[in-house]
Every structure is written in structure tokens, then in C-alpha cells.
Amino acid sequence: AMSNGRPLFAPLPEDEAVVRANAAGIPSILANANVFRVLLHHPPIADVFARLVQAVILVGNLDPRLREMAIMRAAWLRGSAYEWASHYGLSLFIGMTDEDVIAVRLGPSALSLAPNERAVLAFVDDMITVGFASAEVLSAARDAAQSYSAYFELLAIPGCYAALAAILDALQVPLDGDATLWPPDGIGPTTSD
Fold first, then answer.
1. Count of CB atoms within 10 A of residue 89's CB?
2. Ordered per-residue pLDDT tens for the chain, 193 residues
3. What angle do CA 171, 157, 20 make, to 5 degrees?
4. 8 A C-beta contact, residue 152 and residue 66
5. Contact yes or no for 82/168 (Cβ under 8 A)
6. Which residues are CB-contacts of 21 (< 8 A; sequence separation ≥ 6)?
7. How far apart are CA 74 and CA 5, in angstroms?
8. 157: Cβ contacts below 8 Å, ≥ 6 apart
9. What does the DSSP assignment read for 160-174?
10. What is the pTM of this model?
């Protein structure tokens, strides 16, 4: 199939995705999401991102609020509607508010952010927009993470989620189920940034 001239792979039926996930050692809980129903067309690549999700989300040490802020900031900067919508749902599940989500969208200068949250967003901004971060930004991010394991998880988020955002865009992976575009208010990033 093609869309806008792109080669497309429709999400696998859920039962087929679960069979492929089980065969690849990928947790069944992940197989229902469209990202994995598409990536499981090639299980070794699905496995790479499943391991990322396991390391950062399912068994991660980084504070869930900081983790979701970092992932959503990466999604915002990369214009990934799929990542944003998916993690909006997760952010509400862990107790974030729409005001928190809008602060992530505004970035490190948002007035409602705590210093550790500002440090995390500044780190993500540098890693995605510049490709690396200064010693000062890294030290603040390390302090915000509070442990080596959480810091390593934080280090992985911008690049890994940016890479996934590019794949989601290339494959035009549709939003899951009842997810809405750019929640909470439908305002997405501009294409001019």
C-alpha cells in the first residue's frame, strides 16, 4: 500500500501481532499498540523498540513524571502525533494534568515547571535540536534523574524517541483506538520550527 507515495504497512490484526510478539519474546501488552502492530512486520526491529519501552517505561527507574515529560517533549519537538497521543494517555494515568502537558509543550521556560522538570526539558531540547548537551545541562539532568540508572534511561529518551518518531512518520502509523490528535486541545507543533 502507498500513502503520499510512501510504502505503507497496515497494522497487523491484533491476534497476528500477539503471535509474532510472543515468538519474538516481546511482551504481549505491547502487541496491541499500532506502533508494534506495524513494526511486527519485521520482528527484529519491533524487538529493538520493545526493549527500549521495557527499559525506560515498564521497568525503568526514572521518575514517571520526568520520564513522560521527556518523552512528550521529544514527541513535540519531532512533531510526532502518535507518540504525543500515546504518552498523553500515559501522562494522565500517572497523575499529570493538562496544565502539566501544556507546560511540556511550552518547554523549559514554562513558569509552572519545577527546577528538575526544567532541567529535563532543557536536556531534551539540546539533544534533539543541537544533537548534544553541555556539561552544565548534563549535570542538571543527572541531578534531576537522581540515580545512575535513571540518568542512563533519560540519556536514551531523546535520540531513541526521535528515531522512533521518524519511523512512525515514514510508515504513517495511525493513532490507536480513541486517541485524539494533539491532546488536550488539538494544538500541534508548527512545521516552521
1. 14
2. 667 788 999 999 999 999 999 999 999 999 999 999 999 999 999 999 999 999 999 999 999 999 999 999 999 999 999 999 999 999 999 999 999 999 999 999 999 999 999 999 999 999 999 999 999 999 999 999 999 999 999 999 999 999 999 999 999 999 999 899 999 999 999 864 4
3. 45
4. no
5. yes
6. 27, 28, 30, 31, 36, 40, 43, 46, 50
7. 26
8. 56, 67, 70, 71, 74, 124
9. HHHHHHHHHHHHTPP
10. 0.95
- Those residues whose C-beta lies under 8 Å from the C-beta of residue 60, and which sit 6 or more positions away, are 67, 150, 153
C-alpha dist (Å) from residue 177 to 89, 125, 181: 12, 30, 11
Reading the block at residue 168, the C-alpha cell is 512512525
Residue with cell 501522562: 91
d(CA 43, CA 38): 10
Q: Give which of 12, 169, 18, 8 is closest to 84, Cα–Cα.
A: 169
The amino acid that residue 14 corresponds to is E
| 40 C-beta neighbours (distance < 10 Å), count | 26
Q: Which grid cell sits at 109? A: 521556560
